[in-house]
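Protocol step 4 of 5: obtain the predicted structure for the target chain.
Materials: sequence only (see below). No template structures provided, no constraints applied. The aim of this step is simply to have a reference model before the mutagenesis design in step 5. Sequence pasted as it appears in the construct record:
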Amino acid sequence: MDLQAKLAELHKRTVDHREVLLTEEAAKTALVMPFIQMLGYDVFNPKEVIPEYTADVGTKKGEKVDYAICDDGKIRILVECKPASAPLNINHASQLFRYFSVTDARLAILTNGVVYQFYSDVETPNRMDQKPFFTCSVDAIKPGDIRTIEKFTKQSFDIDKIVQEAGLLKLQSLLRIELEREIAEPSEEFVRMMAARVQDGRITAQVRDTFGKLIVSTFTAIIRDSVNSRLSTALNAAAPADETGAEAALGSEEEVVTTPEEISGFHIVQAIAARLVKPGRVVMRDAKSYCAILLDDNNRKTIARLHFNGVATKYVGTFVDKAEERHRIGDLTEIYQLTKQIEGRILELEGKG
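Step 4 output (structure tokens):
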């Protein structure tokens, strides 16, 4: 089975089970160990994968990192795990920072079984960077992620090449973050630069405001058109020549594409809602601009909205009465932080709020 097929299998396992993996041990057994196996390491061979690895660091005695992955008798990768429902942050990586400087490892992974953050020593040798050079989410794998993950497999592992590329990946990641910010909320500098390129005269406050809104809508249109163009190309390539009438009918409608991220986000909201109502009552209804999650398939009973379309920055909308509040999220596990708002909305819809 190739890496892409293994990731697809792991994706299904993640979507099916992560809602009940509320402890670190459960996430390790159900999600992280299969991920390590997918990379080609034998999790049952202590010469390759050491669980609960201990290395005393200074005054810190007996602290453990969840896994140490070895090759040729040397520790290559350190892995620290958290519960599947816990969003990751740098505070979770304290053991990794300490162990990084006293082992041979130059690669560290912080994960909750769903999101994997890869760290190295790009900035200062033998000192783990504060920010990951690569992050992927198993419930929303991109084609580029597969190519990067393949470099961490036992068969392809070359630490010098990985560290060399880590610097480029880190710069690419930082550029992506900045571009996402400009797409979602264009800065004054960016607005001025674009306005000056297409319009003569003084850039007044009104001009800045107008161009700021136009830039957001234009970015959205560019991305949407690009997606639709690829879909159209795929449909034309796959359909037999005598089905041109069906193709024309498809092309005449506005495409609504339900993405894997939207499906995964729906499952998280459904899992949260399951504490109060039967899961079957929570349904997803996708639209062009957002994905609605409804109670009883009633568009007057919106539990939440997933604003994942158009731009890379993702928002989750929660409701009180008819007022929607949008929450920016970095990865899908952060939806769990909105449990209070989601449960409050369900109680409101059920007349119990």
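Step 4 remarks: Confidence is low (pLDDT under 50) at residues 241-253. The first strand starts at residue 49 and ends at 54.
Proceed to step 5.
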